[in-house]
Amino acid sequence: MLMKKILIVGGGIAGLALAIQLKKHGVPCEVTLIEQAPEFKNVGYGIALWGNGRNVLREIGIDQGAITKEGYEIPWEAIETTSHKLLKVFFMEQFRKFGSTVVIPRYVLHKTLIEQLDPTVIKLNTKISAVRNNSNEGVDVELSDGSTGHYDLLVAADGINSWTREYVFGPDFIKPCGYSFWSFWIPGNHASKGIVTMAGDGELLFSYPGKDRAVMLLARRRAPGQLDDSITRREHLLENFNEFGSIVTDNVSLLSDDDPILFSDAKHVSMPSWYKGRVVLIGDAQHAISPLTGMGASLALEDACVLAQELSKQDDINDALRAFSARRTPRVSKFQNQSHVLDKLAFSGGIVAKLRNIFMPLLPSSVVMRPIKELLEGEM
Q: The pTM is what?
């Protein structure tokens, strides 16, 4: 195979995993990974890793290290109403054959991936300023530091707000989910052993336990673009999520002025294609989904693995991109559609919420968890 020059844009989980996978699968290439941040920081909260994501990490030899040591294995998830009526309990034992589901601080996974790479591959404080894309000749790129380069393939792994996607594919692929969420760390001794979900009237509360501390996520239906003042954020949570009672008031009261509360309008990406010419999208840049599924990181790891596999099989990059798209499109699109249905059920209000609370206990757990089970059973 001919030596390829590959530029990866974005130093998040998808981009780092791809750089590692290219080496793992023996793809003859010269890799450059650029990240616009001046340094890697310990940002983010807890993320879930399902069996499919852990299988990818196991393949590159890091699952049994930091993931096993720092990850917290989830035994169950319970869904209840704000009046503590139990709606459903899902036992994660049913998925153990695919690999146990763990919650791990995002920075632990991120740091572990970085440590697998030659640091000379990574260029920080660098972003793209222009792209000329040609399916036969490759990609010409201008970078923010004034340098230029010619690459056989450009991989956009620059997240949900991908500049590369908008520049190459056009705007309007980001869609609002119709709700906003706030998340923050809470002490581990204030969390249950499993995930607790409380469903209100157009509002949700999640408590995700970790090894040493837990993540609380509060979400409510809300039109996108409304301002949220970080200075008054604690007061906002106490005022707007009071139907959840003491589980909110007690944990929010534990926060100091220095404890960050992440706020975001939930969005997803709806893309009809994975690549254009010699530019291909992976991770949240192509298929960001509702954060409520907890599958974003695992799908990003899958993308990196499959793209590296196809590049290792095909000498022609265009053939590799067609094969990559053919493998990923049906799998990811189906799960995206299913996650939208789950979102509507979770954030229902009024009479629909009352019907949800009546009929959810009657539904078999296998029906509710079918999208996850089908994804774990299927091939990447």
A: 0.94
